[in-house]
Design a protein that fits this description.
single chain, alpha/beta, D-Maltodextrin-Binding Protein, domain 2, binds phosphoribosyl ATP, binds zinc ion
């Protein structure tokens, strides 16, 4: 069901939410995020912001439920691969890469273990929240592995005896260090991105998207 108003999905609470809200505010969209609402109407433009878990944003775009979304490339690519494997809709358009949410998806092992290359991971069990991205990387390397799917506490899996290695997001490396792990392969470098659903847009919505993109260009350039 498409509405007249442009629907933008952003993370409700988490690492992307503040910068995301700031970005749209700087683009001139006025809104007030008080309370626990799912949908927030912009005060000065025909725009609704949807405040959701980041995990839901790729699917909302790929199913055409919302028009625009901001999401980390790690999550976007994982969901895209998962949907493609299930023959579910997985199309979207990347409008622009943003200047926040930077991190890398990396494989890490016990810091005292020898490592010479991906072959050393042959037959290992790898704990991760990103099984599709790990499989894509390992297939490219021609290395077999067993997955261990965890939605949290990935970094403790080796110590807990659940896995031999992990593949998780890293920014400063402090979490790996604190858990006695070392980063051995970077499999994806990720940033937040602005994405759009595929399909038709009314002329009004199209014009509004272009206006937002032009302003965003100015906002991001001004920061550089
Ligand atoms: O509740 P919801 O599902 O919406 O949020 P979430 O908990 O799934 O996601 P959130 O808010 O933690 O992260 C949202 C997005 O931020 C991620 O999908 C990434 O695109 C991006 N991002 C950037 C990060 C990090 N940096 C990051 N460091 N996401 C997670 N981390 C975690 C990482 O998983 C590890 O536990 O931080 C830890 C490592 O950090 P360092 O600095 O110790 O290396
Ligand atoms: Zn999430």
């Amino acid at each position: 069901m498409q509405t007249q108003r442009l629907r933008i999905a952003i993370q409700k609470k988490g690492r992307l939410s503040k910068e995301c809200q700031d970005l749209f505010k700087r683009c001139g969209i006025k809104f007030n995020l008080m309370g626990e609402r799912l949908v927030v109407h912009a005060e000065n433009m025909p725009i609704d912001l949807l405040l959701v878990r980041d995990d839901d944003i790729p699917g909302l775009i790929m199913d055409g439920v919302v028009d625009l979304g901001v999401i980390g490339e790690n999550e976007l690519e994982e969901v895209g691969l998962e949907r493609a494997a299930l023959n579910e809709p997985c199309d979207y358009t990347k409008l622009r890469r943003l200047d926040f949410g930077g991190c890398r998806l990396s494989i890490a092992i016990d810091k005292d273990e020898q490592y010479t290359g991906p072959r050393d991971l042959q037959g290992k069990r790898i704990a991760t929240t990103y099984p599709q991205l790990v499989k894509r990387y390992m297939d490219e390397q021609g290395v077999e592995f067993s997955p261990c799917m965890l939605n949290g506490s990935v970094e403790v899996a080796p110590r807990a005896g659940l896995a031999d290695a992990i593949c998780d997001l890293v920014s400063t490396g402090a979490t790996l260090e604190a858990n006695g792990l070392k980063e051995v392969e970077v499999i994806l470098r990720s940033k937040a991105v602005l994405i759009q659903r595929t399909g038709e847009f009314s002329a009004d919505k199209q014009a509004l998207i272009e206006r937002i993109l032009t302003r965003m260009q100015g906002v991001i350039q001004a920061k550089e």
